[in-house]
Amino acid sequence: MLYAFINSAKSDDVFNVKNYSRLLWMGINSIITSFLVYFYNLIKFYVKHDALKIDTLRNVDFNFWLFVFGLTLLAIALVFKKGIELKQENDLTI
Length: 94
Prior knowledge:
about 80% helix
């Protein structure tokens, strides 16, 4: 998906619906993956340590940067959506 986005960015038609959906999909997947990794590590911690402990959250890592990356991709996708709208408006006025 990233390669398709980069290849389409090389062409003249950067602001299209496919690129918007690619960015949106990559952002949502990054956010979901960060939570899935957190829950996987949480379950793995509980299986490894039979007793529930208060300091569980310190021992289970949340992939914060993957979450921030996903939010950034969503923000860029919204900018692309606005760019598509402006491009369509510009194409209609010419």
